[in-house]
Amino acid sequence: KYVIKNYKIGCDYGTPLLIRFSTMEELVKLNVGGEKFATSKQTLRSIPDTFFTSLLSGRIPLSKDTDGSIFVDRDPKLFQVILNFLRTKELNTRDVDLRLLRLEAEFYGIQPLVCAVKSVKVRAVVQLIPDSHRLNFVRTSCSGQ
Predict the structure, then answer these.
(1) If you average pLDDT over residues 108-112, what whole number do you get?
(2) C-alpha–C-alpha distance, residues 57 and 59, integer Å
(3) Half-sphere exposure of 79 (CA within 13 A, CB side)
(4) Taking the model in full, what pTM does it have?
(5) Are residues 120 and 145 in contact, defined by beta-carbon separation less than 8 angstroms?
(6) What secondary structure does DSSP assign to 13-45, as a single string?
(7) What is the dihedral of CA 111, 43, 92, 118, to 10 degrees?
(8) From CA 145, how far away is CA 142, in angstroms rounded?
């Protein structure tokens, strides 16, 4: 990946991306469980009152590795799902243990992701209930939590 005149040029699923950063200070390098990630402060701050907003505001002390990346001692595979959720507000659950993902989302304090994981579980349960019994199923909601 290259940075040219405040633009980050990369590739996502074979499609070229052009993302403008006003300054390079907006780029955040993370080392999550030994795997490197790069994202913007805007992405990490996209949901208020989370681990990331606290980390970037200085309320949580930073731990940096030898190349200056912020070190977070968590699961990198699940972090990839979490980072994509912060970027898109969509949840891809393919090959993901939903119980572990919910625990990670709770650790990071990302309530919309916790709700999304619960919603996936609810839809899965509803699909298992025969049509004749679905009227008796009570759906829970994350609103107000």
Answers:
(1) 96
(2) 6
(3) 20
(4) 0.71
(5) no
(6) TTEEEEEE-SSGGGEEEEEETTEEEEEEHHHHT
(7) 0
(8) 6
Segment 42-49 shows an average pLDDT of 95
Let me know if 117 is exposed, middle or buried by CB neighbors in 10 A (0-12, 13-18, 19+).
buried
Task: Judge contact between 50 and 43, C-beta under 8 A.
Answer: no
Asked if the model's pLDDT at residue 125 lies above 90, the reply is no
**Arithmetic mean of pLDDT, 13-26:** 51
Query: What is the largest distance, in Å, between two alpha-carbon atoms of the chain?
Result: 61
Distance CA 71, CA 61 (A): 11
Q: What are phi and psi of 89, to 5 degrees?
A: 60, 25
